[in-house]
């Protein structure tokens, strides 16, 4: 049933009379109502759209604010980690991935890492952060980030080479099925890496080096290769913050009391057992050392003539020989002498002469509360890192044996401006000590001869000795990285000195 439409009009008598609308008027009012309704709908939709736009803008502003705050926080973190702007990232076509397992003690691994970064850079491959040796004599399970500042290592070298903490997922799945592993040939030049290693990386995409020690030649390499080795060693390989902070504290403690000398007294039980040198040891100790030498199958030499080896200058100096040497060289009786080493074999009995000559004899264990060393104590490489830093910072460094730490610290000190490093000539020391103890020469003569023998062995600028075809007998690159140093015109060391060092190196190379 429909409703009729009507209109009201006033009559002559003033009353309202209802009259029906005409069809024409009805349609007019219907159209007007629909128009008003449509207008209201459009306005409502416009208001909703404006509200949505406002909400979207507000959310966008909040999102941008959040991103800005995160970037600001990241910037503050980066600036607190790195003391200078990071170098621009080098862009290059990646030829593959290089994984490496470092071998040996701390400083043997350190040098190897420098070489592997250099190889990766000039082959245009991506290096995966090196694994450290957990199978060596010292049973230290520390990994790269436990000893070195891995974030700084990666970021500071990004203008040279891409370094990742681990393989990307696709390559990780691939090596899970098959990984091409090999030890690169020792003392190789870059031609070997270009002609042999690069094609293997391009073929297999990922190659794993089982060893890193001495895999790059000392000499005959382009200057830019040598300079990158230096940059990695002396600038990029910064110790992990906990090690760095504690090492800096040790240096502050020492400097607060005046100048200090670091003595790398390589007279721990393992070194004495391996070397077969038993000068000053009693029968019980000699028996104990011999049993230890025979217990380790990778220590090849078993029957050793201690007397002859010592006279040839191939034994680590004893604490007693060291004390006489330092006194004869005129080292101040009151200077602090920091022993950078593990437990000295024979303990206080063997240190008595040295302590009498230098009463300010200290170690990290005597300078720090036990609680501060506890986190590092069962990690020999971390403890060695503390000693390395202190040795580099000292006024004078004196190694008593030509092992890897002695060599790498010597080179680091040369890089820092030829800081004084007394390189004791073990054969000359033994000859002079025996003459003095036998009463054949006076103290004055002994001291004079000792000073003369070491006049050119104070870390002076010197040319690196090159012996073609005999890399083990020539100067180690990291002992004297002359391409990275100031000019020099001093004479080189004699060949006898390098034979002493080569014998000391055999200890590290004898590891499995």
**How many strand segments?**
11
Mean pLDDT score? 86
Q: What is the domain tally?
A: 3
Task: Work out the helicity level.
Answer: 40-55%
- Structural class by SSE content: alpha/beta
How large a portion of the residues is in β-strands, by DSSP E?
5-15%
Major beta sheet, strand line-up: 5-4-3-7-6
Question: Measured on Cα atoms, how large is the radius of gyration?
Answer: 38 Å
Largest sheet: 5 strands, parallel
Task: Report how far apart the termini are.
Answer: 107 Å
| H/I helix tally | 20
Task: Name the shape in a single word.
Answer: globular
Low-confidence stretches: 1-30, 64-80, 489-496, 506-512
Supply the key terms:
fucose metabolism, Rossmann fold, 8% strand, five-stranded parallel beta sheet, GDP-Fuc_O-FucTrfase, glycosyltransferase activity, 11 strands, 3 domains, 512 residues
């Amino acid at each position: 049933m429909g409703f009729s439409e009507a209109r009201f009009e006033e009559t002559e008598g003033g009353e309202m009379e209802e009259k029906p609308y005409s069809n024409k008027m009805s349609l007019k009012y219907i159209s007007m109502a629909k128009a008003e309704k449509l207008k209201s709908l459009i306005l409502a939709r416009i208001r909703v759209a404006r509200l949505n736009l406002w909400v979207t803008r507000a959310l966008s502003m909040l999102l941008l604010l959040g991103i800005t705050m995160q970037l600001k926080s990241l910037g503050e973190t980066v600036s607190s980690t790195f003391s200078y702007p990071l170098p621009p990232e080098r862009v290059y076509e990646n030829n593959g991935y290089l994984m490496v397992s470092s071998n040996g003690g701390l400083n043997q691994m350190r040098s190897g890492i420098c070489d592997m970064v250099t190889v990766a850079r000039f082959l245009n491959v991506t290096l995966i952060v090196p694994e450290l040796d957990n199978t060596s004599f010292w049973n230290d399970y520390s990994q790269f980030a436990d000893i070195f500042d891995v974030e700084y290592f990666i970021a500071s070298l990004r203008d040279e080479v891409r370094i990742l903490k681990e393989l990307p997922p696709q390559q990780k799945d691939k090596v899970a099925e098959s990984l091409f592993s090999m030890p690169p040939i020792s003392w190789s030049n870059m031609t070997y890496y270009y002609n042999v290693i690069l094609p293997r990386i391009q073929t297999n995409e990922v190659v794993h080096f089982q060893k890193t020690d001495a895999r790059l030649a000392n000499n005959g390499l382009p200057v830019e290769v040598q300079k990158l080795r230096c940059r990695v060693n002396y600038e990029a390989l910064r110790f992990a913050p906990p090690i760095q902070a504690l090492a800096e504290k040790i240096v502050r403690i020492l400097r607060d009391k005046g100048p200090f000398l670091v003595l790398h007294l390589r007279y721990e039980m393992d070194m004495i057992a391996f070397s077969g040198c038993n000068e000053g040891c009693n029968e019980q100790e000699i028996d104990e050392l011999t049993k230890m030498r025979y217990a380790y199958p990778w220590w090849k030499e078993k029957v050793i003539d201690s007397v002859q080896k010592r006279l040839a200058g191939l034994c680590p100096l004893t604490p007693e020989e060291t004390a006489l040497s330092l006194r004869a060289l005129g080292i101040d009786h009151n200077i602090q002498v920091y022993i950078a080493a593990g437990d000295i074999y024979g303990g206080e009995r063997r240190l008595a002469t040295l302590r009498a000559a230098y009463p300010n004899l200290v170690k990290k264990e005597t300078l720090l509360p036990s609680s501060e060393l506890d986190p590092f104590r069962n990690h020999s490489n971390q403890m060695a890192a503390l000693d390395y830093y202190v040795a580099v910072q000292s006024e004078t460094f004196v190694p008593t044996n030509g092992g890897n730490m002695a060599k790498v610290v010597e080179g680091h000190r040369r890089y820092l401006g030829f800081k004084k490093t007394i390189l004791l000539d073990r054969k000359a020391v033994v000859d002079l000590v025996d003459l003095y103890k036998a009463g054949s020469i006076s103290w004055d003569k002994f001291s004079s001869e000792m000073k003369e023998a070491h006049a050119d062995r104070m870390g002076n600028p010197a040319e690196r000795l090159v012996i073609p075809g005999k890399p083990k007998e020539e100067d180690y690159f990291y002992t004297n990285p002359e391409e990275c140093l100031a000019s020099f015109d001093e004479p080189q060391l004699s060949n006898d000195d390098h034979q002493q060092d080569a014998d000391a190196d055999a200890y590290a190379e004898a590891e499995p």
